[in-house]
Amino acid sequence: DAKTTQPTSMDCAEGRAANLPCNHSTISGNEYVYWYRQIHSQGPQYIIHGLKNNETNEMASLIITEDRKSSTLILPHATLRDTAVYYCIVRGRSYNTDKLIFGTGTRLQVFP
Amino acid sequence: DTEVTQTPKHLVMGMTNKKSLKCEQHMGHRAMYWYKQKAKKPPELMFVYSYEKLSINESVPSRFSPECPNSSLLNLHLHALQPEDSALYLCASSQVAGWGDTQYFGPGTRLTVL
Q1: Chain B residues with beta carbon closer than 8 angstroms to that of A34
Q2: Cα separation of B54 and B34, whole Å?
Q3: 20 to 30 A from A70, CA-CA: which of A19, A110, B77, B109?
Q4: Which among A28, A45, A14, A26 has a CA at the least distance from the CA of A112?
Q5: CB-side exposure of B42: number of CA atoms within 13 Å?
Q6: Do B42 and A95 touch (CB under 8 A)?
Q7: Which helix (H) or strand (E) holds A12?
Q8: What is the pLDDT of residues B37-94, one digit of tens each?
Q9: What are the chain B neighbours of A59 within 8 Å (beta carbons)?
Q10: Could you give the 3-state DSSP secondary structure of residue B83?
Q11: Residues on chain A touching B109 (C-beta within 8 angstroms)
Q12: Considering only CA atoms, which of A47, A30, A28 is closest in space to residue A38?
């Protein structure tokens, strides 16, 4: 079963920051938070991952709370091409725990 | 380069046909995966190959038969499928399996079973 809870859908105006929350209250100490997105009918695209420190790359920033029970993915300047389903996934790093178990995700709609 | 390619993009087959899906990566990854995604649902893991050996089968029916001929190539052989097997089939790869390495996905094959 997925170990994360995300809002079903969110809207964001183009050019504004999109902040996508994820709750993972049962995360264990050695589990990572991964974010993927899936644009309609395409394969999932890796965005970013982190353990406990905040992370930033060319696509997004990941903010993880100090207790690690929740995180927020930030797309700093959303564009129409960012419209997609965003999946927050918790996974471990041992043989049977590194599976990607997708939840239902958040459908982000970016509008002009 | 994090490209995983899949062919064909679309496939329509009858219930008595035999067909194959192909996945290829040239990133030197030694783990490859098959996922199935039904309409409006998240992807679900089917198989994991690690160093060309099948390491995980998520109780997938035998009408789906995976094959990993070499470290760059992954096939999924299909035989006697049912209409409910219609889905998007996704391939992914990672450096190794079992260490939480990032998985990179291909664009998928949209399969329709008539």
Answers
A1: 102
A2: 11
A3: A110
A4: A14
A5: 20
A6: no
A7: strand A9-13
A8: 999 999 999 999 999 999 999 999 999 999 999 999 999 999 999 999 999 999 999 9
A9: none
A10: helix
A11: none
A12: A47
At B91, the amino acid letter reads: C
Q: Which of A8, A55, A100 has the highest number of chain B CBs within 10 A, making it the mutation to test binding with B? A: A100
- In A, minimum Cα distance to B97 occurs at A95
Please state, in angstroms and rounded to a whole number, the distance separating the CA atoms of residues B81 and B63: 6
User: CA B60, CA B41: separation in Å to the nearest integer?
Assistant: 17
User: CB pairs below 8 Å between A and B: how many?
Assistant: 55
Give, as one character, the DSSP assignment of residue B102: P
Segments of chain A scoring below 70 in pLDDT: 1-2, 95-98
Can you give the length of chain A in residues? 112
Q: How far apart are CA A5 and CA B105, in angstroms?
A: 23
- Alpha-carbon distances of B79 from A80, B15, B18, B33, rounded to whole Å: 40, 8, 5, 19
For residue range B7-47, list pLDDT tens digits in order. Answer: 999 999 999 999 999 999 999 999 999 999 999 999 999 99
